[in-house]
Design brief:
By secondary structure, the chain is α/β, with parallel strands linked by helices. 51% of the residues lie in helices and 14% in strands. It has 27 helices and 20 strands. Strand 1, helix 1 and strand 2 form a beta-alpha-beta unit.
Length: 658
């Protein structure tokens, strides 16, 4: 499938939505699908499209850290998305880019699903600055109305937890709501980069400390003020503890002021935002994870912490009931005093008791495996596509020589598609069976690949080509995607019609037989799709003496064709020739040193005589005797002859003329 993920927030931002989108992208690409991300960036003037990511103009919302406000209207963006040829759109936002995704889906007639990541009810304080109850009620009512409105244009809604599903059902949303917890690639959290972990511990003086960490967006709804107060109470009991807060957000300055007010001093470190690839090392530099948030839709950071082997301290919330099991995978607390009691209990546990808790963590992580997550999402995609396009009934199959005609019925219309037998033979098609739009698209893509394959075979029958050359040839002849071109090339390689390694060796051998220099060989092979370094490494395997012998053979052949000229001039011509033949200056110097001179002194003197007579004949009508002599000598000097020898031969010519 070709899948478009529409999201208001994306890397390098750090939040649950970004984590979910990145995990989904990774899982889908692992499964062989092509993924495009449509998102925003802080620029307000231009769009950027690179590496399958379309960045649309956005305005950063300072009070909602990591989120950008984007207009839902992007005419140029619509053109770019149209070129992506998407099978399905997956929106991860209800506003900005999410609305743009709905416009795209409607205009391009593409099925759409959405994931409801955020409990917007918990964020109304951003617009209700004075905490007026009536305003709070109105904003929450508006959230419900908007959620119902946005749900009308999608085929299915994905909720990351039962808590979110129940909330949406409370909004009176009647669309199918599928609960699919976000999956994670646990390998990156289980692998420990010891060097990076030590760097973190050295930088923040964490050695010998029991380190409790919070990672994520720093905002009012995360209740980090409660975390600081609980940690202050813990510091009053123990002096070997340290709190590390990783991330940025609108409440960062307020939290720093609170830490100062609580006189926590060096016991708290505010790390600030870090790149996603560094996040696992901050978990690994810690002993426990803490959060007091009650606004999570799933709790991805809790899952990341457990995958990293950390015990979790948290306040009870519905999404956590199967993740944080009290005194098994973590500890649930209700207030600062409760936290202190349970933190000390864990710190004073034996290592065996702590290891037992870690062993419990693996069991709760199984439902959040990335592969399971991807399979569940793909099932929703396929159902949405089938619902959107409907099924096509196969009502006729007719063989026509080397082709097969399939007649498909959809609603009250019929359509006949013709495919080569090679495309149909491996499919178990029967009359009366129903095909989805995806299956028909797959047949049509296979047909294009088959035609490109046959076209390539005809070309390769004439002579050998590299995979790059055939790729460029196919692109010039047919309108194929890069993935389809790569499929053709893989077929050709599998059947040994293309073998780049063999081609490289054979071509180098042939050009060496032609006595070409290494630079000539590189210049010949690079346009055929080989990397310069790759060719150079292969050429370097040849012994230097063999290369020198090849250059000498070329030089001797050229020398035999030089019938006249001074030794200096002939050497200059030879150097120019060898450079054109691709020999480097160092090897040319060695070739000249080892080249035996077969041009006799008598032959050179006769060549000089011929050159002088020719120039005398050319200039004698234009200059007097003295000036003529100077002109003739100047010409002979430019040809590399010695002055003394020129004068001697001129005397001979003058004597003979007398």
């Amino acid at each position: 499938m070709r899948i478009g993920l529409f999201t208001d927030t994306y890397t390098p931002d750090i939040n649950g939505v970004v984590t979910s989108v990145l995990a989904l992208k990774q899982g889908l690409e692992r499964a062989g699908h092509t993924v495009f991300v449509i998102t925003t960036h802080p620029s307000v003037t231009k769009s950027v499209y690179e590496d399958n990511v379309l960045y649309l103009p956005g305005l950063e919302l300072k009070f909602l850290y990591g989120y950008k406000l984007s207009s839902p209207i992007h005419l140029k963006g619509l053109e770019v998305v149209q070129g992506m040829d998407l099978d399905i759109i997956h929106a991860h936002s209800e506003f900005g880019i999410g609305i743009f995704g709905r416009i795209v889906a409607k205009n391009l007639k593409i099925p759409m699903v959405s994931t409801y990541h955020t409990q917007y009810e918990d964020y109304t304080h951003y617009v209700n600055l004075f905490h007026v109850k009536r305003i709070d009620a109105l904003t929450k009512k508006a959230v419900a109305s908007l959620s119902r409105l946005y749900s009308k244009n999608v085929s299915a809604i994905i909720a990351p937890s039962e808590k979110t599903k129940h909330m949406l059902m409370g909004y009176d949303i009647r669309k199918e709501i599928v609960v699919i917890p976000t999956g994670l690639d646990f390998d990156k959290f289980k692998k420990v980069n010891k060097e990076r972990v030590n760097e973190i511990k050295d930088k923040y003086n964490l050695h010998g400390k029991f380190v409790i960490t919070n990672i994520g967006r720093i905002a009012e709804e995360k209740s980090l003020d409660l975390v600081l107060k609980g940690f202050k109470a813990l510091c009053d009991k123990r002096d070997d503890v340290h709190l590390m807060i990783v991330g940025g957000g609108p409440q960062l300055d307020d939290l720093k002021s609170l830490a100062k007010k609580l006189e926590l001093g060096d016991s708290v470190t505010f790390v600030g935002p870090v790149s996603p690839e560094y996040v696992p090392s901050y978990y690994h530099a810690s002993n426990a994870f803490i959060s007091a948030s009650l606004t999570e839709t799933q709790g991805l950071t809790y899952i990341e912490a457990l995958a990293s082997g950390l015990v979790v301290f948290a306040r009870f919330d519905k999404p956590l009931e199967e993740i944080v099991l009290d005194e098994k995978t973590g500890f649930l607390f209700t207030n600062p005093e409760d936290f202190v009691e349970k933190a000390i209990k864990y710190i004073e546990m034996s290592e065996d008791e702590k290891n037992f808790m870690r062993s419990q963590m693996n069991a709760v992580l199984l439902p959040y495996d990335l592969n399971v997550f991807t399979e569940n999402i793909l099932a929703v995609y396929q159902k949405a596509i089938n619902t959107f396009h409907g099924k096509y009934k196969l009502i006729a199959i007719e063989d026509e020589d080397e082709q097969v005609a399939l007649t498909l019925q959809h609603d009250l219309t019929t359509d006949t598609l013709v495919f080569d037998k090679g495309v149909i033979d491996r499919r178990e098609l029967e009359l009366g069976m129903e095909l989805s739009r995806n299956e028909i698209n797959s047949l049509e893509e296979d047909q294009k690949v088959y035609e490109a394959y046959q076209l390539s075979i005809k070309r390769i029958a004439l002579k050998d080509y590299t995979s790059f050359e055939i790729s460029e040839y196919i692109k010039g002849k047919m309108n194929l995607s890069q993935e389809e071109v790569e499929t053709v090339i893989e077929y050709l390689k599998h059947r040994h019609f293309i073998d780049d390694e063999r081609y490289l060796e054979d071509k180098i051998s042939y050009l060496r037989h032609q006595n070409r220099g290494n630079q000539w060989i590189i210049n010949d092979l690079v346009p055929r799709g080989f990397f310069t370094q790759e060719v150079e490494e292969t050429l370097a395997l040849e012994p230097y003496d063999d290369y020198l012998e090849r250059g000498l053979s070329n030089a001797k052949s050229f020398y035999r064709r030089i019938k006249e000229g001074s030794a200096l001039h002939r050497e200059y011509k030879l150097k120019q020739h060898l450079q054109r033949e691709g020999y480097e200056n160092d090897i040319i110097d060695d070739i000249l040193l080892n080249l035996s001179e077969n041009y006799s002194e008598e032959e050179e003197r006769n060549s000089l005589r011929y050159e002088l007579l020719k120039s005398i004949s050319r200039y004698k009508t234009r200059f007097g005797k003295d000036k003529l002599k100077r002109k003739v000598i100047q010409h002979a000097l430019s040809k590399g002859y010695a002055f003394e020898e020129i004068n001697e031969v001129l005397k001979e010519i003058e004597i003979n003329e007398d």
